[in-house]
Design brief:
The complex is a heterodimer of chains A (391) and B (248). With 391 residues, chain A is of the alpha+beta class. Chain A folds into two domains: 199 residues, no CATH class; 158 residues, no CATH class. Chain A has eleven helices and 13 strands. Chain A is elongated and about 100 Å long. The two termini of chain A are 27 Å apart. Classes of the chains: A alpha+beta (391), B alpha+beta (248).
Chain lengths: 391, 248
């Protein structure tokens, strides 16, 4: 076996440029696959982390009628804050939020929005609600950068906001933007205007009411209350998992093409080797090698492409991976309007499992592709092979 | 001396009390407006011009209505809207779209959406409750619109579930036709304005033939509703006000 590896190594190095071309193509597959998979893992970590910090904490309670994708249900999604939450809200472990449909009229343009009320003194979420504690002549409001961009708003902008109170009566008031925050969580940015919760409760005739609660580390989490239901962290982030699963399956096509290219080159090399090295095969058999051993020798030779490729990939891939993990990959398009939590710059995360599984998959595929053409050797007549007769 | 006292009393009555009797109350004015504007039934052919920021769209329709409770509208043009029908029975509204061949009931918050992109909402069309049941009305002054003397009526909500907390309606003093209506939010902000003009006598009653609805917070010229033909008290077959008629 040791001789088989030695021979295989010698033959490979002896083949010169052809080997290195194969190795470079295969190493490129290694690097790209690990990098893209790392990017997906990084996105998953980042999206869930950002959602937790900006929007959902460790989980949420939703009003029974609340459905984030049904704006028509918004105005019915409110109920008095349950007594058992009062203590957690006071302790800063829970943030009540109130939602309603509304319209804003910046510069005479009408835009339907979601009015979101949040306590100015909350610190659980990263939404800069403290800015809502500003005294201005209008209702103080904060918006996300994407909302500000799409509605041509900036700090200091004033416009009319219209809504209907809980009885259905129209009301309208001037609103002033006191802060614009930048977040990757589109669900709290796009089409939303955040105002102080107490002002919203008063204006919409919903005193002491809320639609959704985000909570941090709390001990007691009943699954169902009279008007609210528990939404766990995994339920709330299932959307991110789905998105990443979908993206990953889309990327597999790319992986398959990359591996196919490399495998095609290795397959071609193997076929050529068996065709051109018939005398050598005959000699091995004449020296006492069984046909299975000769097949093994050629298979190892082919599979060693993957080993060399892994070494080459490590030489230029490791510095590349480290650089990417530090600097990140900035998407070449504007992701703010995707409606998903996607940071403009994603930082890949490489786990040992990811690297080992990728190396194993590529190595096993190379092994199969090397073995496939080598099977012909078993059918060869050793005397004719020794004479170099093409079979 | 007695004659002088009598003269003073008479003058007081003439100057102060008679005008009170001469000026009808707000509710009387609203009743007269109702009597003038509503009929047992009517067939209206109209065009609605929706002025957008860049372009305007004109939609023609024919509406059959019986009182405030039943109405059936069929859109005639443009080709994109042709065949779309809308049926209102009491507080329910259905829309039939020929492109999908489906009847959809508009309910709940969908009623707050705009009708064909206009400044009117379905709800504006649906609210058939009497103004006097919803508002406390009073005459607060006079105005002149298009050279017509008008009473200005202020209506303040007396029930909770009204869309507009305050309305100001200018009613022609002689013809009892509203010429302007302003709808206000609770905060006092003017939300919508309706201007009614080109008042014509049709079958013995005065009727405005052009109405311009304007969302006052939005830039633009609003939505113009022009009545091309109107017939009162016709024989409208009952089957028109059925869901089956929507698909015909």
């Amino acid at each position: 076996m040791k001789i088989a590896f030695k021979l295989a190594y010698r033959n490979l190095i002896g083949a010169g440029l052809r080997t290195w071309l194969n190795v470079i193509v295969l190493s490129f597959s290694f690097v790209v696959i690990i990098w893209l998979k790392g990017l997906m893992v990084g996105w998953d970590h980042q999206a869930k982390n950002d959602m937790s910090q900006w929007q959902i904490g460790q989980g949420q309670y939703w009003h029974n009628s609340y459905e984030p994708y049904d704006p028509f249900a918004l105005n019915d999604s409110h109920a008095p804050i349950p007594d058992m939450f009062e203590e957690q809200i006071k302790a800063g472990e829970m943030v009540p939020m109130l939602y309603a449909q509304g319209s804003i009229y910046p510069e005479g343009r009408m835009k339907s929005i979601k009015i979101s009320g949040i306590p100015a003194d909350q610190t659980l979420l990263k939404i800069p609600s403290a800015s809502l504690d500003t005294v201005v002549e209008a209702i103080p409001a904060i918006v996300g950068a994407s909302m500000a961009h799409s509605s041509h708003l900036e700090k200091g902008s004033r416009f009319v906001m219209r809504w209907r109170d809980s009885k259905g009566t129209f009301d309208a008031a001037e609103v002033e933007i006191v802060d614009v925050f930048s977040t990757t969580v589109a669900q709290i940015d796009m089409g939303q205007v955040w105002i102080p919760l107490d002002v919203m409760q008063q204006k919409l005739l919903m005193p002491g009411e809320a639609s959704v609660f985000s909570f941090g580390e709390i001990s007691e989490k009943p699954a169902q209350l009279e008007n609210f239901k528990l939404k766990s962290f995994s339920e709330l982030t299932a959307e991110v998992d789905e998105m990443i699963k979908m993206k990953s399956s889309g990327q597999s096509v790319f992986y398959i093409i990359l591996i196919l290219l490399a495998m095609l080159a290795i397959f071609d090399t193997q076929v050529l080797s068996i065709f051109r090295r018939q005398k050598e095969i005959g000699t091995y058999v004449a020296l006492g090698y069984t046909r299975r051993e000769v097949v093994g020798l050629f298979t190892i030779e082919g599979a060693m492409h993957a080993v060399l490729a892994a070494v080459v990939a490590a030489i230029y891939g490791v510095p590349f991976f480290i650089w990417q993990a530090k600097s990140g990959f900035t998407l070449p398009m504007d992701t703010s309007e995707f409606g998903m939590t996607i940071a403009p710059t994603m930082y890949p995360v490489y786990s040992m499992g990811l690297i080992v599984s990728t190396v194993l998959i590529v190595f096993l595929t190379t092994l199969v592709v090397s073995y496939w053409p080598s099977r012909r050797i078993a059918k060869m007549n050793p005397t004719e092979a020794l004479r170099g007769k093409i079979q | 001396m007695n004659n002088f006292k009598y003269a003073i009393t008479l003058l007081t009555v003439v100057l102060f009390i008679c005008p009170v009797f001469a000026q009808p109350t707000a509710n009387t004015i609203l009743d007269k407006v109702d009597a003038n504007m509503s009929a047992e039934n009517m067939i209206v052919e109209s065009t609605m011009t929706i002025h957008g920021r860049r372009a305007s769209r004109t939609i023609s329709s024919r509406t059959y209505s019986v009182g405030d409770k039943k109405s059936f509208t069929e859109y005639i043009s443009p080709a994109r809207e042709e065949g779309t029908k809308m049926l209102k029975l009491e507080d329910q509204l259905w829309i039939y779209s020929p492109s999908t061949d489906r009847i959809i009931q508009i309910s709940g918050h969908m009623l707050r959406q705009s009708v064909m992109g206009s400044d009117l909402s379905y709800e504006d069309m649906m609210d058939d409750r009497k103004l006097t049941d919803l508002y406390d009305a009073m005459v607060i002054g006079s105005d002149t619109i298009d050279e017509r003397e008008c009473y200005i009526l202020e209506l303040l909500a007396k029930v909770d579930d009204v869309a507009y907390y305050k309305r100001l309606i200018s009613v022609d003093k002689q013809r009892f036709v509203p010429l302007k209506e302003e709808l206000f939010a609770k905060s006092g902000k003017l939300i919508k304005q309706t201007s009614l003009r080109d008042v014509k006598k049709v079958d013995g009653r005065w009727f405005p033939t052009v109405m311009v609805y304007k969302d006052m917070m939005k830039a633009g010229k609003g939505t113009e509703f022009r009545i091309d033909a109107i017939k009162f008290n016709q024989d409208i077959p009952e089957y028109i006000f059925s869901k089956a008629a929507l698909k015909q």
